[in-house]
Amino acid sequence: MRKVIRSPISREEADGIATTRAVEFLRQGGDSFMTTTVDAVMNWGRKYSMFLYPFVTACCGMEFMSAAGPRYDIDRFGCALPRFSPRQSDLLMVVGTITHRQGPILKKVYDQMAEPKWVVAFGACTCSGGPYNNYATVQGIDTIIPVDVYIPGCPPRPEAVLDGLIKLQARVQNERVPADGRHRETSELALPVVEKPVA
Hints:
36% of the residues lie in helices and 9% in strands. By secondary structure, it is an alpha/beta fold.
């Protein structure tokens, strides 16, 4: 006959200790099945429902329009409805050459966007200044705002745009947004100095 060894604590006390440990683990930033599942579902919804804000300034805009047209149809990726108010959008598509005069405007648009937000640099001029290596052109918008996906090309083909959107969706699916809502800090990025010409 087996002898039953009684535990020094009751079942209710053991459940209380386990609950206390679990709460402390989550409070310190640990993951549980529930939080990781909720994050995965929220990120799945985010990656298929991006509201893009097209910041189109130059010739790459024609290629952007063709990517949004019926042949390539970025609606398949959940990016169909452009929002022309930054407060209603979460994907900033910067398309074309950005000058130093437009830098503060771009930064203001980025700051007004809803969290979490993502940025796509579309075209060689946006990524690195392109052929314009002069005093008036920003040599890459990553000196003003953080960029998530670069789509190089002059102009980039619609297939490259679709590939960039697929890469962005993969990044959104694996991203964890902290409780405070900010997923990237931009305080270390300095605004470009815009000097007025002396007449």
